[in-house]
Fold each of these.
Amino acid sequence: MFRMKIISQTLSLFLLAFVLPNGAAMADNGPYQATSLLGMKLYAPAEVGAKTLENLAQAKAEYVANPNDADAIIWYGRRIGYTGDYLSAIAVFSEGVQKHPGDARMYRHRGHRYISIRQFDKAIADYLIAVELIKGQANEIEPDGAPNARGIPVSTKHGNIWYHLGLAYYLKHDFEKALWAYTEARNASMFPDNIVSTTHWIYMILRRMGREDEAIEALDVITADMDIIENFSYYKLCLLYKDLASYDELAREVSDSPSGAGMVYGLANWKLYNGSQGAALAKMRAYVENSQGWSAFGFIAAEVDVAK
């Protein structure tokens, strides 16, 4: 068993060196991706799933065959990002910006990875460009890199641009601008999943600003019978905000995953809103010190709050 694990790790590293730009290493003793706001070096995972590597190899082959094709560039960058090598992904999207400066998708995806490595100002700059580029354009479904259980994409190009802009502003604690962007993201929603994710952030922002009545009003779009496909954590948190779910019930569902990070952060904020600042910050600190999912939005938001 031990020998098989070593072989698996070695194969993963070999394949990554083959498919990633500059042969970027993924092991913990390799180049780190970023420094957290708490001073910790953040590394890509030492192991990557076989399917992720297979998808990356295919994306690279398509990119090599068509290096100027916008879709090939985007998918190559996205597939690299899924391995945790955000710096290489940013390099690919930067190439895309040079080749296709009028394509909002290049800025949308590069901005996402700037958020991952804690470069929030660069992310905001990219998303503001993207916002200008999509003006007057029809919204469209954005293909999923990791399809959900139903195989139905639940986000849009416009929605994702506004959503990530809102997140970047939130991480800067610029709550007025975050509220503006998340409101635009909700207006661009096409699916219940978008409604619950944006409403979750809108509620948290308004509570942070002390505008509780408006926060409660923002929940009017949330009902107990929504057909949610993937954003279950955000949905359950919205139900908590409406007193349709219990804190203890949600706390038992927390996992070390991107959705789990969102749940932890939402629950910690719930304590904060209700007068338990010490308990809220302790929960956030414990999470960022023990979780491995440092690129999850909930993790980054908790890290920001602890750092501040």
Note: The longest strand covers residues 34-35.
Amino acid sequence: MFPAGPLRERLANGLARADAIVMLHGKRTADDLPDRNWLRHFHKPILHARLEPSGIAPDRTLVAFAGLARPDKFFDTLDAMGAKVAEAVPFGDHHVYSEEDLAMLARLAEEHEAMLITTEKDAARLSPEWRARVAVLPVTARFDDEAALDALLAPIPWDRREG
């Protein structure tokens, strides 16, 4: 699913500039693969990856919150990891957290004697004071074909990759 909206680049323009496409999937089956008709004229690498936790969930009761397009993916990840989630609070994608939102989350955590946890994306939108109060579950992109990723990145000078 492509992001939509008046400030987004036209798909044809983005594909014309692209060196490759990275398709992020959950657990993939043949039935889950998207309709690729929009890719019929794209003849560059298409890499497949999935986001996986690269850390562990705290071993205590949690109140999870996320402002993603599909916050349930974050909550499902915590569940699959065996995390003890007392409350899962979804917000809209790109949610700007107000002090009222954060106070409500803090109250929920206190009621459940729990720790707040969120995504890296959401943590980046918190003030430093709130980030210090919230656990973050890091994720890493795992590519189906690491060699294809390495080949794509090989021509890029290391000093450009690090910046």
Note: Strands lie at 21-25, 46-53, 61-67, 84-91, 115-119, 134-137, 139-143.
